[in-house]
Specification:
The longest helix has 17 residues, at 96-112. The strands form nine sheets. Strands 7, 8, 9, 16, 17, 18, 19, 20, 21 and 22 form a ten-stranded mixed sheet that branches. The chain has a six-stranded mixed sheet with strand order 11-2-1-15-24-23. Among the domains are: 85-141 and 222-335, D-Amino Acid Oxidase, subunit A, domain 2 (D-Amino Acid Oxidase, Chain A, domain 2); 736-822, Aminomethyltransferase beta-barrel domains (Elongation Factor Tu (Ef-tu), domain 3, Beta Barrel), CATH 2.40.30.110. It is globular, with a radius of gyration of 28 Å. By secondary structure, the protein is an alpha+beta fold. The termini are far apart. The protein has 19 helices and 43 strands. The protein binds flavin-adenine dinucleotide and (6S)-5,6,7,8-tetrahydrofolate. Flavin-adenine dinucleotide (FAD) binds at residues 10-16, 34-37, 42-46, 49-52, 173-174, 202-204, 206, 210, 225, 227, 270, 299, 333-335, 358, 360-363. Residues 737-814 form the Aminomethyltransferase C-terminal domain. Residues 378-433 form the FAD dependent oxidoreductase central domain. Residues 435-718 form the GCVT N-terminal domain.
């Protein structure tokens, strides 16, 4: 008799069915999959999905999911019938901007190991003869992409899971989740109760409703999307049959928000060109089990022909063969959109054992299912998940109003060429720091991150551009890297290195960890020594059990039982809360919103702050990486002596109501010193020069501290902590890959991140973050590469062009810490 946990999976779509397969493959054989619809065609999104699988995106994780989906579906069949038809993928460009973007995409493919090349118009037409040669400027061809037969995959994996003991039960609606003592104990259905130790909701666009059963906010919005089938297309007659269905590559015409696949001698056309059509669950068509089929299902709304009219015209322009064809059938099919386009994976923060895996495309379904199975069985996914974890969102990002607006915007922008820095247009000004009014007076150019408004530079500093010394004058940029950038950043960097600047650090997530168990809890969850004197600040890491980097943190001990943790976002709060002991000996509060922070940094920082305070801000009075309570112009503050930009100075914290006053007194005191307000553009440049990593971009759970160059923050001698055992025997000397500092040889070619890096002519790694280094006068890029010597020459591919760069000794600025420790 098996003793593995009893799992109930809600939803027998492509995600739920694959999860049952992945769990049973790992020996968890007490798996029950329930679906409200009949089996195997349940009437969910999977039942009608045309199944185009394009693997390449900017995200390494999403691409890895897709690559696994392809690999897995290729290995499946149902009674000999295919589950994946590897016809390849072709994305065509009809504008120069798109063509450039396809080169960028080819770079991502190279970074993540997907074969693909940009081809000219002749080759596009050879690959897809229906294309009008005169319409296309080129295309991106990916031979391993193709068509998933989604509904058939469900049958294939369900059969396999059933053979290993799983039970699939259709026509059973889950109406409640049973729980006891904060844990799931089973599900209630319209056919009775099913006990369970773990429940995984794979309810697709029903996910928000299912989450409500345990009070979990699932930030997704169901939206309709149009799909049509043409009648017979003369030029396709005789090419395919009903078994093969398609031989031409799947096709995307993103300049018109369209995609295409063959259905034997007809074409299927999907369109995102129409207005967003949000769907309320109460408005879904009611379909009896007996009537469920290709013609009617709850996930299909009636076709609204007028919405498709422009798409039909654009299709006939791109594919002249369609001019003699007509639309045979169409529908408005429903699936999920999220605030950032990513899927939603994770466990309820309140009800242990209730998991979700939703807002997942067919493309990523097998990869997501594998990761969820690994999380459940092994406690860790082999693919890193920070961009998929439902806990990545702050509370404001999970509200219905926010989700509705951002998900609809993502629908509209789905195929747009999007710059990595491009902010949301709306909603904006959701969270602003207490300095916001002053920042606006100074002409701040704001970008947005997790609903926080963050100045990137200040137009008020523009007059100083002409005062820049020659060696600080930044070179011109190409149009792409010049977007959302200003040469004013050079001024702000220059002033930070030579005078003093004020940085708004308010959006940085701050957690207060307190109580009699706080010290022991932090000792267990981080790599550093926490039992230090009150006033200590420690740069430390949170690791997972395998030694991967969950986060990097600063921990300030403000009292015996009171710590302030500088964190990277909501994921850290979620992790700490889950890990806190059940006996309430530790309280964890997110204090970000009620407090604020100004970074005062630069060689003149002390000249600015000391005259405003009776407290001792000298090097002896407040040493590097120490914190203390103080008053500045009578305002109670906590000053922390550290600097992400690598200059002398402090993070100065106060509660929100004093924020504007604090800004004003620092600003006034700074004027005679030539102080400026400085933004994120300068900040990023300076932090890269100083070699400070940004978690999420430069390092994640994929990497151990030694590879990432933060091994100095690990203190194995301090005793037990999460991840310690996994690091045993590892050191900076054992690593085979490394987060590597590169400088660009030509001194001017700025790259932005995710570009592939070539070593000896072969793709060997990828850029994580990059910026122009204003102090060193050359672009700086960090990249994951095999461990190589300083001085090694590499090439970075930027829009199909190769840019030479050299492995540099890091940090580039102040390696002996003389600037920061004065
Ligand atoms: P579903 O297949 O919807 O499964 C969820 C299941 O949960 C359903 O069967 C439902 O009945 C069940 N359920 C819900 N509530 C309950 C309850 N209370 N009790 C019991 N059961 C419940 N993706 C691609 O990758 N490529 C494409 O080309 C593509 N094209 C698309 C075209 C269209 C027109 C549409 C609409 C979507 C397309 N998608 C595509 C997206 C893709 O179809 C979905 O993302 C995917 O099928 C979602 O799978 P799922 O298993 O999460 O959800
Ligand atoms: N400020 C505070 N907390 C933070 C950040 C911050 N937490 C999240 C994130 N940023 C953490 N990142 C860093 C990266 C580097 C440093 C601080 C925070 C840093 N490093 C010193 C170094 O590498 O030389 C550490 C030296 C030491 O350990 O003594 O300063 O910006 N509050």
């Amino acid at each position: 008799m098996s003793t593995t946990p009893r799992v109930v999976i809600i939803g027998a779509g492509i995600v739920g069915a694959n999860l049952a397969d992945e769990l049973t493959r790992r020996g968890w054989d007490r798996v029950t999959v329930l679906d409200q619809g009949p089996l195997p065609l349940t009437g969910g999104s999977t039942s009608h999905a045309p199944g185009l699988v394009y693997q390449t995106t900017a995200s390494k994780t999403m691409t890895a999911f897709a690559t696994y989906t392809v690999e897995k579906f290729l290995s499946l069949d149902v009674d000999g019938a295919w589950c994946f038809n590897q016809v390849g993928g072709l994305e065509v460009a009809t504008t120069p901007e798109r063509l450039a973007d396809l080169h960028r995409k080819q770079g991502w493919a190279t970074s993540w190991g997907v074969p693909g090349e940009v081809v000219g118009p002749e080759e596009c037409v050879r690959l897809h003869p229906l294309l009008d040669r005169d319409q296309v400027l080129g295309g991106f061809h990916t031979p391993t992409d193709g068509l998933a037969k989604a509904a058939r995959v469900v049958v294939a994996v369900a059969r396999r899971a059933e053979a290993r003991g799983a039970v699939f039960q259709g026509s059973t609606r889950v109406v409640g989740i049973n729980q006891s003592g904060g844990r799931v104990t089973g599900v209630r259905t319209d056919k009775g109760e099913v006990p369970a130790d773990v429940v995984v909701s794979c309810g697709g666009f029903w996910g928000r409703e299912l989450g409500k059963l345990v009070g979990m906010r699932v930030p997704l919005l169901p939206l309709a999307h149009q799909y049509v089938r043409t009648g017979q297309v003369a030029d396709l007659v005789g090419r395919n049959d009903d078994v093969v269905e398609a031989r031409l590559p799947i096709l995307r015409h993103q300049d018109r928000d369209l995609y295409y696949r063959e259905h034997n001698d007809c074409l299927g056309i999907g369109s995102y060109a129409h207005r967003p059509m949000p769907v309320r669950i109460g408005d879904l068509p009611e379909v009896d089990d007996d009537d469920m089929g290709e013609a009617a299902m709850p996930s299909m709304l009636p076709f609204t022909e007028e919405d498709f009219a422009p798409s039909w015209e654009h299709s006939r322009l791109l594919l002249p063969s369609l001019r003699d064809a007509k639309i045979e059938t169409g529908f408005n099919g429903i699936f999920s959109f999220t605030p950032d386009g990513g899927p939603l994976i994770g466990e309820s923060p309140d009800v242990a054992g209730f998991w979700i895996a939703e807002a997942v495309w067919v493309t990523h379904s097998a990869g997501v299912a594998r990761s969820v199975a690994q999380l459940l069985v092994d406690g860790r996914s082999e693919v890193e998940l920070h961009g998929c974890d439902v806990a990545r969102f702050d509370e404001i990002e999970t509200t219905d109003a926010y989700v509705d607006e951002t998900a609809q915007r993502n629908f509209v922008e789905i195929y747009d060429v999007v710059h990595p820095l491009q902010p949301k247009l709306s909603p904006r000004d959701l969270r602003v720091s207490p300095f916001h009014a002053r920042q606006k007076e100074l002409g701040a150019f704001f970008l947005e991150s997790h609903t926080w408004e963050r100045p990137h530079w200040y137009e008020a500093n523009a007059p100083l551009v002409k005062e820049l010394p020659a060696e600080w004058q930044p070179p011109g940029r190409d149009a792409w890297s010049a977007m959302f950038h200003s040469p004013i950043a050079a001024v702000e960097a220059w002033k930070t290195r030579t005078a003093v600047a004020l940085y708004d650090m308010t959006p940085l997530t701050r957690l207060e960890v307190s109580g009699p168990g706080a010290l022991a809890c932090l000792e267990r969850l981080t790599t550093g020594k926490m039992d230090k004197s009150v006033g200590s600040v420690t740069y430390t890491l949170a690791l997972d059990e395998a030694g991967g980097i969950r986060s990097d943190l600063t921990v300030a001990r403000l009292g015996e039982d009171l710590f302030q943790v500088g964190a990277n976002g909501h994921l850290d709060l979620d992790y700490f809360r889950r890990q806190a002991p059940a006996d309430h000996s530790v309280q964890i509060r997110d204090i970000t919103g009620g407090t604020c922070c100004i970074g005062v940094w630069g060689p003149l920082a002390r000249d600015l702050v000391q005259p405003l305070s009776d407290d001792d801000f000298s090097n002896e009075g407040l040493k590097y990486f120490r914190a203390k309570a103080a008053h500045i112009a009578g305002i109670p503050v906590t000053a922390m002596r550290l600097s992400y930009v690598g200059e002398l100075g402090w993070e100065i914290y106060t509660s929100a109501e004093y924020g504007q006053k604090l800004w004003d007194v620092l600003w006034e005191a700074g004027r005679p010193l030539g102080a400026v307000a400085a933004g994120r553009a300068a900040f990023t440049s300076l932090r890269l020069e100083k070699g400070y990593r940004a978690w999420g971009a430069d390092m994640t759970t994929e990497h151990n501290p030694y590879e990432a160059g933060v091994g100095f923050a690990v203190r194995p001698q301090k005793g037990e902590f999460v991840g310690r055992a996994a690091l045993e025997g590892l050191s900076a000397d054992t690593v085979t890959r490394r987060l590597t500092c590169l400088t660009v040889d030509d001194g001017r070619s700025v790259v932005l991140g995710h570009e592939p890096v070539f070593l000896d002519g072969r793709a060997a790694g990828y850029v994580t973050s990059a910026a122009f280094g204003h102090t060193v006068g050359t672009p700086v890029a960090y990249a994951w590469l095999p461990a190589v010597e300083v001085g090694t020459s590499v090439e970075i591919q930027y829009f199909g062009r190769r840019v030479r760069a050299t492995v540099a000794a890091e940090p580039l600025v102040d390696p002996d810490m003389t600037r920061i420790r004065r």
